[in-house]
Write a structure and sequence with these properties.
By secondary structure, this protein is α+β, with helices and mostly antiparallel strands. It contains 2 helices and 4 strands, in the order αββαββ. A hairpin with an 8-residue loop joins strand 3 and strand 4. The protein is rod-shaped and about 175 Å long.
């Protein structure tokens, strides 16, 4: 056989392959760097956009906190005003109680029953008086129950008195006064 030296040919092929490999490696590196830079820019844009959203939400939350604080103050003022209105309404109702009581007292107290004292405390009415007979006090209790604005008449005590010339029985009674409701007919 003849001696053919294929080494230079192999070296030139290897050199070509090495050059081709280096070009492919450079292109792949360039593509990788480009993709990484593009991905990095996209991620930074997304982060910046999210930070803008977060800042917007924080600003809006701060505005809402201010509004909620104002609403809380308005609610407190409203509750105070409602309490004042209720108190004034209560005073107006109580103001008419004595007039109403003295207007209807002659209708409620039958003949033969004499009242010595009348005391109003909150929604209670304490009555102390004298009567000629027990049935007259019972009649007074029935009339109180039918009045509609007085209720729960209770006799605290009733006893015969030994005072002469007329023997009158002394009694004490407690009534409850119904609160006046505006617009309701009584």
């Amino acid at each position: 056989m003849s001696n053919i030296n294929l080494l230079p040919w192999r070296e030139s092929v290897r050199a070509g392959q090495k050059k081709q490999f280096m070009v492919i490696l450079a292109v792949a590196s360039l593509i990788t760097v480009t993709v990484m830079l593009t991905a990095n820019m996209w991620i930074h844009q997304q982060i910046a956009r999210q930070q803008q959203r977060n800042q917007f939400l924080q600003n809006e939350t701060a505005k809402l906190d201010l509004i909620l604080g104002e609403m809380r103050n308005i609610r407190e003022q409203r509750l105070k005003l409602l309490e004042r209105m209720t108190l004034i309404e209560h005073f107006q109702q109580r103001r008419n109680l004595s007039v109403r009581l003295f207007n209807q007292l002659p209708e409620l107290v039958p003949p033969g029953v004499y009242l010595s004292s009348l005391n109003v405390v909150d929604h209670s009415l304490d009555i102390v008086g004298k009567t000629e007979a027990y049935p007259r006090v019972a009649n007074m209790i029935r009339q109180v129950e039918n009045s509609g604005w007085l209720y729960e008449p209770r006799i605290s005590s009733i006893f015969a008195s030994d005072v002469q010339p007329i023997a009158l029985s002394q009694f004490s009674m407690r009534l409850r006064v119904r609160e006046f409701i505006p617009g309701a007919t009584q």
